[in-house]
Write a structure and sequence with these properties.
By secondary structure, the chain is of the alpha/beta class. 40% of the residues lie in helices and 17% in strands. It has four domains: 76 residues; 106 residues, OB fold (Dihydrolipoamide Acetyltransferase, E2P), CATH 2.40.50.140; 188 residues, P-loop containing nucleotide triphosphate hydrolases (Rossmann fold, 3-Layer(aba) Sandwich); 170 residues, Rossmann fold, CATH 3.40.50.300. The protein contains 25 helices and 19 strands. Strands 9-10-8-11-12-7-13 form a seven-stranded parallel sheet, sandwiched between helices. A six-stranded parallel sheet has the order 14-19-18-15-17-16, sandwiched between helices. A five-stranded mixed β-barrel has the order 1-2-3-5-4. The radius of gyration is 30 Å and the shape is globular. The protein binds adenosine-5'-diphosphate (ADP) and magnesium ion.
Length: 699
Amino acid sequence: MKSQRAAPNPERLLDTAVTYLTGVGPARADALRRLGIFTARDLFMHIPHRYEDASTVSQIAKLRIGDDATVIGSVISKGVIPTRKGLRVFQAVVQDSSGLIEASWPGQPFLDRAIKKGDLLLLTGPVRFFHGRVLAPREFVNLGPEDAATGTSGGRVLSVYPATEGFSFKQMRTLIDKHLDQYLPHFQEYIPRELLALAGVPALPEALRAVHRPRTLAEAHAGRARLAFEELLCVHILQLRAKALAREARAGITFENKRVLTSKLKSLLPFELTGAQMRATREIVKDMTGPQRMHRLLQGDVGSGKTIVALFAALLAVENDYQAAVMAPTELLAEQHMRTFTKLLAPLGITPLLITGSLAAKERKAAAARIASAEPVIAVGTHALAQEGTKFAKLGLAVVDEQHRFGVGQRLALGKKGERPDVLLMSATPIPRSLALTLYGDLDVSVLDERPPGRQPVTTVRRSEKGRAKVYSFIDAQVEKGRQAYVVFPLIDESDKSAMRAATKEFEELRTGRFASRRVALLHGRLEAEEKDDTMRRFRDGEIDILISTTVIEVGIDVANATVMVIEHPERFGLSQLHQLRGRVGRGAEESFCILLGDVSPEVAERLEIFVGTDDGFEIAEADLRMRGMGDLFGERQSGEPTFRVADPIRDHELGEVARAGAAQLLAADPGLTSKANKPLHDVLRKRYGRALELFRVG
Ligand code: ADP
Ligand code: MG
């Protein structure tokens, strides 16, 4: 304490408000604020995001027709040239140390004002032939007049910063450069040296120097890696710690593995469990027979057979005289589970119980009476299970199917019933394992990465608009054979009515035209839940041949007789979404087909080919993540998810593994991070993630 007063914390200076820095007036301070930059520390943590472009910078002399290239060069001449067709073209000749090339912007004469002779340009685009080589910039960045601060033409690495209105990245670079020397010595490393060594990254001050003023690209990457490592390490520490705390606080029921009902079910199953199902079941049994409360996520691609795994868990509870609840997001899915369970449990003399909002008062009362008695029953239902009025006498297991469809509140409400029941969450959103650990670090995860045998992969093809008539003939032929088909239109968001209109229009056309002799129905989000369920039921029961729909078809729906999935405007879907849609067919013994219909651009075609080429949901999810980022995979950001500013959990996967191992090592030696050596890190965690720590709290 005393020593602190004697030598004021040198980091204090880093808390200086940016407004006090020379070169920052009120307008600029506003702009910085928009970037989340309030203090000097924030400013230096605002790191370049453009090394990638710089890393692929080509020498102008080496550009060939047909290349798609990024170059940096200074403008040696420029001007606006009218073409015969009346189009005005801005042209500039740019030069680097190797040579020069003409860049051409048709229809953009106004660039003549924005780009000056002597400006350094970063240009990206294809190289075309037009009286010689011409670069057609798809994108360009004006780095401003070539001077000492920007100098890059000598082959040095360019730092390009995220900018905002009122603050160009060049101004940003100048500002950071101006103050870097003064502030850098005040940054102190707080990650233990051994961990930095483990990850092979430099200490903080050197890392910041390297990201802002790299001499080589490798240096810049190493510096960035230090910052990414810090984020990954912090998140893993938080999660491991949360997990450990949750375990302590998670005293639960200790079930006994009696192997009475579970063994019986196993011997009576009409199929063999897959290796993955057996592994997941073992993991669940281990959790349930342990003294701690189970908190496990069962993750598996559509059709991987999660339901049966849940049933084994439910039977383990029941043979211990406890009740089990299986909650599904819709009545339809609840009914589907009910039917599956009823069939499989009949030989065991067990009758499951259905609890949904649409039960008649009398039935509901009877159901309530059964669960309020101590009868070890398996209750299947919707969120009605989690409602206050639903009282379990002895709930030992709570299963939440399609868990991401429920709010945190609903999940918690079910988990709060009974005697601290074990909790099993299930999800079909295929999340790469590395990411699952990062996002759901406070959960244990089991993965079903194997398909039930005999399931043929769905034959997936792309067909252009020209092939539409043939696709319809194909649908017709399948229907003739007694099969059923889905035709799906994209729905961008709830308020998007155009998709609904498209589906409705198509429905009217097909119903009265091409498929007049078939039973065609329409399903979209604007219909009442009851009507939706009713249509789905009729489809399930084979009363509808062709279902025209927006994306509201349930993820978990299991109609074995549906063999065709036609997807209109496939370019509007993420690959994972397409994969989820494809999962609605291929659930029976017959060969199934997924047809992406319509004309798409070459780039989109390339993306779609990834989907056509594999039926591995995890592979598809990884590809999706690489191309579109995390947001699309989940539809929305999950609250409480720690965000990364520098790290990319997929790209930095290996670094993440090191961070995870490092975090485990650190906590094993010092669980509360209370030692003197770990105090700086502890303080940073507290300060930065105080709120996240709250969110991580379980129970
Ligand atoms: P999901 O994981 O998408 O919820 P389900 O549990 O609905 O998948 O299972 C899909 C279908 O596969 C069901 O009809 C189920 O009976 C069947 N199934 C599950 N496990 C196996 C298995 N090991 N062998 C054969 N069929 C299986
Ligand atoms: Mg399911």
